Amino acid sequence: MSELKQRWQALRESQSGLRIRDAAAQLGVSEAALLETRIDEGVRRLAVRIDALCAALPHLGTVMSLIRNESAVHEKDIAFPTGVGSDGEIRFVGEEFALTLIPSAVAHAFYVEDANPKGPLRSIQLFDAAGGALWKIYARDKADHAAFERLLAELAWPEDVQPISFSRPAAASADTAAAGNPVDLQAVLETAAAEAIPVRLEVANHGVRQSHRGPLVRIVRMGPWLNVLDPGFDWHLNENPLSGGSVEPGDRPSLVLHLASGGEAARLQADDSATADQQATWRGLVEKAVTS
Length: 292
What we know:
The protein has seven helices and 17 strands. It is an alpha+beta fold and about 290 residues long.
């Protein structure tokens, strides 16, 4: 057993329920480096073939698409349409979601199978060159598992090719200043839910941007985590890494949540399906939430 694998195992035994991202941060390595310690134990490397992956997505049935950044986790059940590529991006747009992938950001891919009381959790996971997670696609109950198996076979890592090593994480930019003012985000979400305002709630990292479109229903606070727990859509926001929020003006102003380390954690705006009255309520809501 490798030294890293031993350290990870000891950490999991001492911290029940520890997620891989948090374990990687505590151990000073990437998520993908931890996954490599599980090769042939529910994990295997996949070839990075974005063309094959994107072509297969519309045939997988409904899958759970997960992206996250330092603060936010965005989980959306999606039946993917055919993607459209342009300007170095591939875009998927449906009635209740949109997703944009930057293929050049993806350097590593893995198949991951984790134990779960309801049955194995099976996923394809994409990572950047340093081994940071970009996108995870889970085949759950509504997925076409035969199509998922065909995709795994198509993405099989060639046995005669050595694994690609991880690069060093990019150094943080010196000019990424914290931005934003204090914001009562819980009030925004709860009022939007009470008024049934359809919103566009978006989370991005440097490889994938994913948004949910529609009204919010169940808002739950769990310590520093503010959560939306709706059928087919979960959103989790840890407010500790935030520096605040700001309003991006326009006909449908966006509430932008900023990371203290620089960049965006998430953004919210009224969806274009909102009525004129709902749009007006939203404008007043976000302006009050950031300035009060």
